[in-house]
Amino acid sequence: GATVLLLRACLVLLASPIYLLSFLGIWEPLCRKVFPFILGKISIFHENRSKKHKQELFRNLPEFRGPSGALRLLEIGTGSGPNFEFYPAGCRVTCTDINPNFQESLVKNMKKNQHLQYERFLVAAGEDLGQVASGSVDAVVCTLVLCSVHSVSSTLREVLRVLRPGGAFYFLEHVAAEHSSWRYFWQQVCYPTWKLIFAGCCLTRELWKNLEEAKFSELKIQHISIAMPWMPIEPHIVGYGVK
């Protein structure tokens, strides 16, 4: 514990300009503007490493089409839209994100993926999807988002509310490493500074526990490793739950 605290203090010193900006109330609005650019650079590497997992994850999406034959999909934390290429043709997508500054890169990705029908873009947090009617979507997708929501349990309650009975929630998230591992040690060291720099991203959430506690009638979770050299986000979970 003492070693973790010492190394955390070293990181705080290295990142002291950011901590000062945060104290002055400047960092958060600045981060909202620059985060889409930073995330775009980092996500290219992550997307290359996670592509095969996403292809496998979304393979059975067409099975959850509604009675009309259409697939109504809501994505929480859409960002720039890196998941669009994996959705089936004709899928009707509603995009949401708490940060409206993603819209420019999102529009570019929409133009690249015209096999989809885009319904609307909502500025909304995962915990508050009040603009979406209950039981109105066939699938909800959330990738690399549950790490940064204020309340995982509230977000999952909203997911279950907006899903129709028999609909599915798809997820791919980085999670806490094994507690006895060096990865977990470094996750603890990096936690405060990482959370500040990366818009509230929490490194040590055991998200599989939240998913198991949610009221899904069927839940499939797989623990995987997505190699991210020099970054403390290698352990992931992937899967889906059915309402």
TrEMBL record:
Keyword Transport listed? The answer is no
**UniProt keyword annotations, A-Z:** Membrane, Transmembrane, Transmembrane helix
Question: What protein does this entry describe?
Answer: MET7A protein
Membrane-spanning parts: 6-27
Q: Which residues form the Methyltransferase type domain?
A: 74-171
Q: Which CDD domains match?
A: AdoMet_MTases
Q: Which PANTHER family does the record match to this protein?
A: METHYLTRANSFERASE LIKE 7A (PTHR45036:SF1), METHYLTRANSFERASE LIKE 7B (PTHR45036)
Question: Sorted alphabetically, which InterPro entries does this protein's record hold?
Answer: Methyltransf_11, SAM-dependent_MTases_sf, Thiol_S-MT
Molecular function (Gene Ontology), one example: S-adenosylmethionine-dependent methyltransferase activity
- Lineage of the native species? Eukaryota, Metazoa, Chordata, Craniata, Vertebrata
Per UniProt, what is the name of the gene that codes for the protein in this document?
Mettl7a
Q: Which domain of life is it from?
A: Eukaryota
